[in-house]
Write a structure and sequence with these properties.
Blueprint lengths: L1 E5 L6 H10 L3 E6 L2 H10 L2 E4 L5 H9 L3 E4 L9 H18 L7 E6 L25 H12 L4 E6 L1 E3 L7 H11 L2 E4 L5 E6 H14 L5 E3 L3 E5 H12 L3 E4 L4 H5 L15 H7 L8 H7 L5
Parallel strand pairs: 1-2, 1-4, 2-3, 4-5, 5-6, 6-10, 7-9, 8-12
Antiparallel strand pairs: 9-11
Helix pairs in contact: 1-7, 3-4, 4-5, 8-11
Length: 296
């Protein structure tokens, strides 16, 4: 297939481009910069100039493709709500450009959207449209496109990691450097799901190849790693002390991250693995944290 990929030069995109090309697909990667364009050319992809803020550029990219994978997201978490709404508009633009066809559109969300209740593993068959995480906007947008007849499926992400980046854990490292201490909330028993970058890239490929209308897939290799275990691994790498703080202190200590650090967010990928024959093989989150080069 000829696949239009937004976010092609991002963390996951740079792993997904070679994954798709190795499987025989052509990739049209979106970028806004000359540096990104050269990286795509070097990887064997075609360049499409565009941005999330320009719906027309999204439509033009979609017109060139047999399928679309939407990875791009503005990760400025100080404007998280606004950026989730921007993602909603981008999904609407991509969907409109696919109207009247069965070409697949794979969008991105978070595993938390599959949480039925606190402490229960999120599953693919649950869509929690009342979830407090603003990223629910992406699933609402995808659902609207489904209702309009577009062939939409969703890849829900946990903390995606390799030794260089680890999702929301990477900002924790910067906070720890500023504070001189690593902290977890309460007893640190709350869990975060994780998936290795290579496994997640393979999942996106399998999802777009399947083109299963309305399906939701979880890129989860580990159902839940405790926040204490994560913080202790960071403490070893950064050589900083590890402490517990009370829940009411989280906002002051973590800033915008305070809304996430105490959440218990386990997630299952059992259905995804069965449905797509996808079996995670990458290193664990703690293994990657132990391999991280913190001095860099």
């Amino acid at each position: 297939m000829r696949i239009f990929l937004t976010g092609a030069t991002g963390f996951i995109g740079t792993a997904l481009v070679p994954e798709l090309i190795a499987a025989g697909h052509q990739v049209v990667g979106m970028t806004r910069s000359d540096t990104g364009a050269q990286a795509l050319i070097d990887a064997g992809a075609e360049v499409h100039r565009g941005t999330l803020e320009d719906p027309e550029s999204l439509s033009r990219g979609t017109a060139k493709a047999d399928a679309v994978i939407h990875l791009a997201f503005d990760h400025d978490f100080s404007r998280f709500v606004e950026n989730c709404e921007k993602d909603k508009r981008a999904i609407a633009a991509l969907g409109s450009a696919l109207a009247g066809s069965d070409r697949p559109l794979v969008i991105t969300s978070g595993t938390g959207m599959g949480s039925a209740q606190h402490g229960e593993p999120a599953t693919e068959d649950v869509v929690n449209f009342t979830h407090p995480n603003p990223r629910v906007a992406s699933e609402l947008a995808g659902n609207a496109q489904l209702d309009a007849g577009i062939n939409v499926s969703v890849v829900r992400l946990p903390q995606v990691h390799n030794p260089f980046r680890q999702g929301l854990i990477s900002p924790l490292i910067e906070i720890a450097r500023q504070k001189g201490v690593l902290a977890y909330v309460g007893e640190g028993r709350n869990r975060w799901p994780a998936g290795h970058l290579s496994d997640v890239a393979r999942l996106y490929r399998l999802a777009v190849e399947a083109g299963e209308r309305g399906a939701r897939f979880h890129g989860v290799g580990e159902e839940g790693v405790s926040s204490r275990e994560i913080v202790e691994a960071l403490g070893r790498g950064l050589k900083l002390p590890v402490v517990s703080i009370a829940p009411e202190e989280a906002a002051a200590h973590f800033g915008w991250m305070g809304m996430f650090v105490g959440l218990d967010m386990p997630a299952s990928s059992a259905w995804t693995q069965t449905r797509l024959g996808w079996h995670p093989t990458g290193p664990t989150l703690i293994a990657d944290l132990d391999e991280a080069r913190y001095a860099e």
